[in-house]
Each structure stands twice: as structure tokens, then as C-alpha cells.
Write a structure and sequence with these properties.
The structure holds two protein chains of two kinds. By secondary structure, chain A is mainly α. Helices cover 69% and strands 3% of the residues of chain A. Chain A folds into two domains: 32 residues, no CATH class; 252 residues, Cytochrome Bc1 Complex, Chain C (Up-down Bundle). The longest helix of chain A has 33 residues. Chain A starts with a helix and ends with a helix. In chain B, the strands form two sheets. A six-stranded antiparallel sheet of chain B has the order 1-10-9-4-3-2, with no helix packed on it. Classes of the chains: A mainly alpha, B alpha+beta. The interface between A and B is medium-sized, with 34 and 28 residues.
Chain lengths: 365, 167
């Protein structure tokens, strides 16, 4: 009797919605969704992991906003207050910092897996481009958020990072002032970074993320290259609902546990309050995802081939990044279904290159 | 034959007339389209201009500091360095092992970090990217592309003053 009643309530809600939104169509669509089952299926989970961590960022970010103050005089003290006086403040802050790092890691893994599986090829170019923009905004989130506690390390990392942007030909000066809110890194910079971090970037991010996910729903998930030449009956898939979704859920649980362990046992340090009149401390470092680049800038001499070393670095990174972004455009072999070995070598080279310089960044001091 | 010719010439004129009215109307359309698109761009510019201008920070008022007194000659031990505020700018003051004073902008010419005096090496050092300068502010190793900006030091009666180098 009870279950009958419950069922009928469920049915009633369904009917009410069906009458207004024709949700049966959506349910049918969800039933049809499937994911290719092959040896690389594991990589299909990383987009979802990044999404989970983004949600964690939004929630913990909003919680931190309740107490954080974004001014030169009180930023450091307010973070100190959150970490020492607020119940579980240290935990929320630590989760926010760790989740940010894991999110960037998940996004980077997601990007490389899409790259190596050639999932960017026609017709999914726009999914790739929106994904790249999402990666850039994730990095911008990291860079702007790093400054917010207003500690020594972040202060000098921001000085260096924004100074590099000032080297860009023609528009560098404008970008530098735009970012810093003046000539130097000051309270004005903090205000701007705070505004970007909590309003501008989340706004743009949500729009791009929605497009990114809509494209995937519209076109279906990318299938492995070898399927093009494989007879249909040999192609194995698993239903998205419930099989893939439940597995993703399980992975989310694991990620949340890892996050909790990291946040509790390795709480994020606050360091020393920034002082614009103190020498840069030994061993200033940006976040790990900028460390490889930072290390290369350390190695660059003042002059390379008659041009300024930093400018040379920016130009090389800019060109490489540009080629990387436009991979769907110039990789004609993959879009016609043929294998492109050079593409794989280039990807492996970039991974090894960054791993070496990032490791050097950690070791050398 | 003649009738035929007349007929043809008649149709030719018609076509020419048709063409000219067509091209007239299409040029009018082109004009309108350029006018509207141009107008839209101008309108967009009018909206964007204040936004861009708003984002450009105002010129900060330079604190007019021409000299600062950093204390007595004997306040600073020999072979040491410290950073002082010269208006809003950090300046590194050195007392060399021989007792001479020197002062430079403390902003590294590489990427804007603040430098320090390294006693053990007798050099000015930037910890951000291992930039090194000698005690005359000259860049001698690492990535800095230029020497540190020089400040002048004067000792009046036992007081040490730092000046901005006018040249």
C-alpha cells in the first residue's frame, strides 16, 4: 500500500513535469548515451574529476568569502583569522588550496588524454578550443588565488609573473598596468586579483563549461581512432547510465578521500606577510604548474640572439602554445583518420620537457 | 532581319537599364549596410571606451622625495647592506668592507624582485632567479639585463643622506 502510494507520487511528479517539459525525450536520450569500452577508457573519467573539483572550489570558495578581506592591510590577517579562529577554517582553506591544485592536475591530464586519443579532431574542434580556454582560466584562477593571502612568496611570484606579461611586445605595458592596477604590485593589485578570482573568472568559466558540456552531449563522446576501421559488432560500449555514471561516482568518492587526506595531514601553510620593502626570500616559487616555466626563465641568459632573454622566452612559449592550441587545425592526418606519429612524439616531448624542468625547479635552490 | 536587329538592340537597352537600376539599388544597399555596420562599431566603441579607460589606473602621485637621511655613519656596520624606503621605492644601501657607502635601486632589473646584499660573496644578489650584481651595481651574472639604478650618497657631518641621481 505504502509503495503503491509512493510510486503514484513519483508517477504524479513525472506526469506533471512531462506535461510541461516533455522530459521523456531527455530520459530516452540519457538511455541512449554510451561510452566506448577499450583499453583507454580510464582517461574518460578525468573530465568528470575536474568538474567535481571545480564544484568543490565553488563551495569552499564561497565559504572562505564569508571571512576573507581583500585589502592590503587585512588580507593576510583575515586568512590567519580563518586558519586559527574559525571552526574548521583551516580545513576549508586547506581543501580549497589542495582542490585547486588537484583540479589543475586533472585538467592537464584531461587535455593530454584528449590530445593523445586524437579526440580533438573533426567534428570536435570547438570542444577542444573551449577546453583550452577552460585550462587557461583554471591557471588564471590559480595565479590570482595564489596572491590573495598576501604572503611573501605569493607577493614575489606575482611580481615576477606580471612583470613577464609586461615584456609582451606592444601591449605588454598595458597588460601590466591592467593586472597590477598601477606600476607596482600593491593593494590595488590585490583588489583586482580578488575581483577577477571571485567574479570575472567564475562567470566566464561557467559559460565556457556549459558550452563545453553541451558540445559533448550534442556530438556524443569521442570514439577511439581504430573504431573507424573496425566492424560495428566488434565495437564494445558501456551504457552511460548507470554503468559509467556509477563508476565515475566511485572515482569521485576516491578523489574526495584523497583530497581530505591531503587537506588534513598536509594543511596549507600561510607563510610570512608580504613586505614590499624586504628582499625576495630564498627559494621563492610559483605553484607547481608554473614551476617548469619559472625554471626555464631562471636559465635564460640576459640576451639570446640579440634579443632580451625574457622576450625570447615569451616568444618561444607563445609560439609553442599557439601551435598546441591550433592542433585540430594543422593536424590534417588525424582528421582524415590516419595515424600521425609526429603528433604523439611532440606530445611525449612536451610532457618530458616540462617534467624535467619542473623537477629541476623543485630540486635546485 | 532589320526588325530582328531592332528587337535585339531593344532588349539590350532594357538589360542595360535593368542592370543600372540593379547596381544603383545594390550600391544603395551596400552604402546602408556599411553605414549600419560602421554605426554599430562606433556605438560599440563608445561603450567600450569608458570601460577601458576605467580599467587604466590613474597615475599615482609621486611622493616628491629628493633626499632621505638614513642615520649616522657608524649606525651601519662595515660589510653590510639594508633596504630603505625612498618615497615609495625600495633602495638598497651598502656599506662596503672598506667603509664606503653606496646606494642603488633595490628593484632587480630582471623581473622586478627585491635584491639583497650577500656578505659571503660580496655581491648584490636577487633570490628570484639568481641574478648577481657587483658592489657598483653592475650586472655580472644570471639573467639581469642591466645594472641597478644608481643613487647618490652624501655624508654631512656624521649623517648619511641618499639622493636621487639627477642624471
Amino acid at each position: 500500500m505504502m509503495t503503491d502510494n509512493k510510486l503514484s507520487i513519483k508517477k504524479k511528479i513525472f506526469n506533471w513535469l512531462e506535461e510541461r517539459f516533455e522530459i521523456q525525450e531527455l530520459i530516452d536520450f540519457a538511455h541512449k548515451k554510451s561510452v566506448p569500452k577499450f583499453r583507454e577508457t580510464i582517461w574518460y573519467y578525468f573530465g568528470g574529476i575536474a568538474l567535481l573539483l571545480f564544484v568543490v572550489q565553488v563551495i569552499t570558495g564561497i565559504l572562505l568569502l564569508m571571512y576573507y578581506k581583500g585589502t592590503e592591510d587585512s588580507a593576510f590577517e583575515s586568512v590567519q583569522f580563518i586558519s586559527t579562529k574559525i571552526n574548521f577554517g583551516w580545513l576549508i582553506r586547506s581543501v580549497h588550496s589542495w582542490s585547486a591544485n588537484l583540479m589543475v592536475l586533472a585538467v592537464i591530464i584531461h587535455m593530454f588524454s584528449v590530445y593523445f586519443l586524437k579526440a580533438f579532431r573533426k567534428p570536435r574542434e570547438l570542444t577542444w578550443y573551449t577546453g583550452i580556454l577552460l585550462l587557461f582560466i583554471s591557471l588564471a584562477f590559480g595565479f590570482s588565488g595564489y596572491l590573495l593571502p598576501w604572503n611573501e612568496l605569493a607577493f614575489f611570484a606575482t611580481k615576477v609573473g606580471t612583470d613577464i606579461s609586461g615584456e609582451v611586445p606592444l601591449i605588454g605595458e598595458f597588460i601590466l598596468k591592467l593586472l597590477r592596477g598601477g606600476e607596482d604590485v600593491t593593494g590595488a593589485t590585490l583588489s583586482r586579483f580578488f575581483g577577477m578570482h571571485v567574479a570575472i573568472f567564475p562567470g566566464i568559466f561557467i559559460v565556457l563549461l556549459t558550452l563545453h558540456l553541451l558540445f559533448i552531449q550534442r556530438q556524443g563522446i569521442a570514439e577511439p581512432e581504430e573504431w573507424k576501421t573496425m566492424p560495428k559488432e566488434e565495437r564494445e560500449t558501456i551504457p552511460f547510465f548507470p554503468n559509467f555514471a556509477l563508476r565515475e561516482l566511485l572515482i569521485w568518492l576516491i578523489v574526495i578521500n584523497i583530497l581530505a587526506i591531503l587537506a588534513v595531514f598536509f594543511p596549507w601553510e600561510l607563510g610570512v606577510k608580504a613586505d614590499p620593502f624586504a628582499p625576495a626570500p630564498q627559494g621563492i616559487k610559483p605553484e607547481w604548474y608554473f614551476l617548469g616555466m619559472f625554471q626555464i626563465f631562471k636559465f635564460l641568459p640576459a640576451q639570446v640572439l640579440f634579443i632580451n632573454g625574457e622576450l625570447f622566452g615569451i616568444m618561444v612559449f607563445g609560439l609553442a602554445g599557439f601551435l598546441w592550441i591550433l592542433v585540430p587545425f594543422w593536424d590534417s592526418k588525424s582528421s582524415s583518420g590516419r595515424k600521425n606519429r609526429i603528433l604523439n612524439y611532440a606530445g611525449i616531448f612536451i610532457i618530458i620537457f616540462f617534467m624535467i624542468f619542473t623537477t629541476l625547479g623543485f630540486i635546485l635552490d | 532581319m532589320i526588325i530582328n536587329q531592332i528587337y535585339y538592340s531593344q532588349t539590350n537597352t532594357d538589360e542595360i537599364m535593368n542592370d543600372s537600376t540593379k547596381s544603383n539599388s545594390s550600391s544603395r544597399r551596400d552604402f546602408l549596410s556599411i553605414f549600419l555596420k560602421g554605426g554599430f562599431l562606433a556605438w560599440f566603441g563608445v561603450i567600450l571606451y569608458p570601460v577601458f579607460k576605467y580599467l587604466e589606473p590613474p597615475k599615482a602621485k609621486e611622493e616628491k622625495v629628493s633626499q632621505i637621511n638614513i642615520g649616522k655613519v657608524e649606525d651601519m656596520p662595515k660589510d653590510s647592506g639594508k633596504i630603505v624606503k625612498f618615497g615609495k621605492k625600495p633602495v638598497i644601501v651598502l656599506r662596503k668592507p672598506n667603509g664606503d657607502y653606496a646606494a642603488f635601486s633595490a628593484v632587480c632589473t630582471h623581473l622586478d624582485c627585491i635584491v639583497q646584499y650577500k656578505k659571503e660573496e660580496g655581491q648584490i644578489y636577487c633570490a628570484c632567479h639568481n641574478g648577481r650584481y657587483d658592489l657598483n651595481g653592475k650586472n655580472i651574472s644570471g639573467p639581469p639585463p642591466a645594472p641597478l639604478e644608481k643613487y647618490l650618497v652624501a655624508i654631512k657631518k656624521d649623517d648619511v643622506f641618499i639622493y636621487k641621481d639627477a642624471g
